[in-house]
């Protein structure tokens, strides 16, 4: 009977080791997939991300919001002309050059308003270029391959059935947490794109206020917010890359029990930092909430 007990023990041990290695392999494959997927999503311009949605947003903006922005610009430029006139000693000292100045400012304001979408897309083209350049570097630094799991298997083979069973349960829980992480990343990345579309739909209104000193803060804050949400994609990519590199170091440590809970801690930390990227980007660019 001793040989039968030994065979069953070895069979159960091999089954648990294969299960644990399967959980770890799935975890690390998810890390690799997350880096590639996020790099693609945050490196895509609004026009390319979903052409149908972007076409709808542009049509709504040009047919509904742009006429309102035109009226706002008319009011702003009239207010600007009145301010320029009364600033000169209460109408006692008026120079003809102020009218040329006003015509020039009006021309520039109309030119900016008529090219709002080109300006917005230009901002995102710049951020897209930055993200794509970073993604090329990050993708080559964060890959977790099968050779990195060899140390873990060697450590598992030296363990008994009891610890292996507990470790399998722990690795299974962590594997489920990575699925939750995928949902969190999906919400943040896609939520960012929805926010971009919402901001783009109202772009003509804040751009219409740029030409006046008193009302220009609205347009300036809008541009800062636009830069923040555009470069938030870079911060998201950096967070994912840091997470992937940390997990890569776990894969080469050869300590399975420590690896399980370290991955759990890194996963929670990643979720926290991803949610902070929006506020951090706005803080960097000085955009008000």
How would you describe what is shown here?
This protein is mainly α and 289 residues long. The chain has one domain (15-65, 115-285). The protein contains 10 helices and no strands. The protein has helices at residues 2-42, 46-49, 51-86, 97-114, 116-139, 150-157, 161-201, 204-207, 216-251, 256-285.
Query: How many structurally independent domains?
Result: 1
The pLDDT mean sits at 78
Q: Helical segment tally?
A: 10
Decide which structural class fits the backbone.
Answer: mainly alpha
Estimated helix fraction: over 70%
**How widely separated are the two ends?**
72 Å
Order of helices and strands: HHHHHHHHHH
The proportion of strand residues reads: under 5%
Query: How is the main sheet built?
Result: none
Radius of gyration: 28 Å
Describe the secondary-structure layout.
Blueprint: H1 2-42, H2 46-49, H3 51-86, H4 97-114, H5 116-139, H6 150-157, H7 161-201, H8 204-207, H9 216-251, H10 256-285
């Amino acid at each position: 009977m001793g040989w039968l007990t030994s065979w069953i023990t070895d069979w159960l041990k091999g089954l648990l080791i294969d299960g644990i290695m399967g959980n770890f392999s799935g975890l690390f494959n998810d890390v690799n997939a997350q880096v590639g997927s996020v790099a693609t999503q945050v490196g895509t311009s609004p026009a390319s991300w979903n052409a149908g949605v972007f076409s709808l947003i542009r049509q709504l903006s040009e047919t509904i919001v742009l006429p309102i922005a035109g009226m706002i610009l008319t009011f702003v430029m009239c207010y600007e002309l009145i301010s320029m006139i009364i600033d000169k000693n209460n109408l006692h000292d008026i120079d003809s050059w102020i009218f040329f100045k006003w015509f020039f400012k009006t021309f520039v304001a109309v030119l900016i308003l008529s090219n709002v979408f080109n300006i917005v897309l230009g901002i995102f083209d710049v951020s897209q270029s930055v993200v794509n350049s970073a993604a090329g570097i990050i993708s080559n630094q964060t890959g977790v391959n099968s050779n990195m799991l060899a140390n873990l298997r060697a450590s598992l083979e030296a363990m008994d059935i009891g610890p292996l069973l507990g470790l399998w349960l722990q690795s299974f829980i962590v594997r489920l947490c990575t699925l939750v992480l995928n949902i969190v990343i999906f919400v943040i990345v896609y939520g960012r794109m929805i926010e971009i579309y919402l901001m783009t739909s109202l772009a003509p209104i804040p751009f219409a206020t740029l030409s006046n000193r008193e009302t220009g803060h609205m347009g300036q804050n809008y541009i800062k917010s636009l830069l923040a949400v555009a470069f938030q994609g870079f911060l998201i990519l950096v967070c994912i890359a840091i997470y992937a590199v940390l997990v890569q170091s776990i894969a080469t440590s050869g300590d399975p029990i420590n690896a399980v809970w370290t991955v759990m801690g890194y996963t929670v930390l990643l979720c926290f930092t991803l949610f902070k990227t929006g506020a951090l980007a706005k803080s960097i660019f000085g955009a008000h909430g």
